[in-house]
Amino acid sequence: MKIRNPHLIRAVGRVGALAVRGLAGSSRFHFRYADPSVNPEVARRTGQRFIYAFFHEAMLFPAHYWSWPEMQILISDHRDGELITQVVRRLGFGVVRGSTTRGGARALREMTRRIDRGHLCVTPDGPKGPRRHVHQGLSYLASRTGLPIVGAGMAFQDPWRANSWDRFAVPRPFRPAACVVPEPVFVPPDADRDVLEACRAEVERRMNDSTREAESWVQSL
After folding, report:
1. Averaged over 32-40, what is the pLDDT?
2. DSSP labels for the chain?
3. CA distance 217 to 190
4. Are strands 71-75 and 94-97 parallel, antiparallel or unpaired?
5. Contacts for 89 with CB less than 8 Å, ≥ 6 apart
6. CB atoms within 10 A of CB 20
7. Residue 215, φ and ψ in degrees, nearest 5
8. What is the bridge-based pairing of β-strands 94-97 and 160-161?
9. Distances in Å between the alpha carbon of 211 and those of 85, 205, 218?
10. pLDDT averaged over the chain?
């Protein structure tokens, strides 16, 4: 059943934010950075800005751990997007509505305007997949803004999984969670289609390698 009542949507948003705080907040977080300067906590002190990318299924990881006002996250115009928007705003994110498939041009303009507010955050396989596939809109955004792409691989230990296209991960309480972050990918400002595609493929490769490493690591903890 679709939820359309705006008061009910806001109420679900409040409950959802509390649930994320409770579930993800009980996780034991572990990080591995190939380049320590891309750590958002370091970047906050140095004034560097990045485009952080993470797969849709692992959204609850950054939704808890990186929920700062300077994180401007792209949320789809898909019918469930307003519910997600209500949740992540209450967690502390800035929100831009749109995606690579719906409202993309408008979202790109808005994300470009927000680069002076902090980092940009994107789920490059959303809102409909394919799972763990990076759409080219991410490399185009990096080319337009000049911000490097930091594609992180994230995993929870034995999470519950939704029966959805992305197999959305819900962490079990008090279990480990791991994040592996490779070197950033720089996209030239004058990138043509071939360069954009090469950068897109490289980001996808690094994100998938890092996700597999995070999954293996978290099972060993």
Report:
1. 96
2. -----HHHHHHHHHHHHHHHHHHHHTSEEEEEESSGGGSHHHHHHHT---EEE--GGGTHHHHHHT--TTEEEEE--STTHHHHHHHHHHHT-EEEE--SSSSHHHHHHHHHHGGGGSEEEE-TTTTT--TT---THHHHHHHHH-PPEEE-EEEESS-EE-SSTT--EEPPTT-EEEEEE---B---TT--HHHHHHHHHHHHHHHHHHHHHHHHHHHH-
3. 38
4. parallel
5. 13, 95
6. 21
7. -65, -45
8. unpaired
9. 25, 10, 10
10. 86
State the amino acid at position 28 in one-letter form: R
Q: Tell me, what's the pLDDT at 95?
A: 80
Answer whether 0.85 is exceeded by the pTM: yes
pLDDT value of residue 3: 59
For 40-44, the CB contacts below 8 A with 24+ separation are 40/66, 40/68, 40/71, 40/119, 43/119, 44/68, 44/70
CA dist., res. 91 & res. 191, Å (int): 35
CB burial string 196-205: b at 16+ within 10 A, e below: beebbebbbe
Around 171, how many Cα atoms within 13 Å sit in the side-chain half-sphere?
A: 30
